[in-house]
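Problem: given the chain below (182 residues), write out its structure.
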Amino acid sequence: MTEALRPNHLSLANRLTRGVWQCVWLLLYRPTPRPMHAWRCLLLRLFGAKLGKAVHPYPSARIWAPWNLEMGDHSCLGEKVDCYCVDKIHIGAHATVSQYSFLCTAGHDYRVDGMPLMTAPIMIGRGAWVAADAFIGPGVIVGERAVVGARASVFRHVDPWTVVGGNPARLIRKYQLEHEES
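Solution.
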C-alpha cells in the first residue's frame, strides 16, 4: 500500500517562494537549450533541490517546488514531466522519468468540508524507469530497477525488478538482468 496521506497547509513563505521560482523557471530555466543540464541544475540547487552528478532535468520539465526534489547521480526528468512535488520526491541514481509523466505527491480529502490538501512523498528507486505518460500517485514507492509501462497509473508500491502497466497498474512480470556473452 502507499504511505498515508497527511494534511498539508502551505505557508505564505512557501507560496511566495513558489512565485519567485515560477518566474525563474519561465525566464531562466524553460528557455534554455536541451544540452544545458548543468545550468538548470544550478537553478534547481539555488532553490534547494538536492541533485547528484550528471543529472538531466530537461527544459520543459515542470518542477513545482525544487526544495522538495532529490535526484541521484545520472537520473533524468524527461521532456514535459510534471513533477508536482508538494511533498518530497526522491529519484534514485540512474533512474529515468520519461516524457509527459506526472509525479503527483498531493490530493484532496473529499470526505472533509473544504477538501483539505493531503500529501505523501514519492520514491523512485535506483535504476527504475517510469515510461512515457505514466502517473505516479502520492505515497508510492517504485522499487529498484522497476519499470512502469507507458501510460500506466500507479497507486500502490511497485516491487523491485518488476514490470507493471495499465490503469490501475498491475504486475506484468518479474525480471532479472541478462548478461551478454563476449
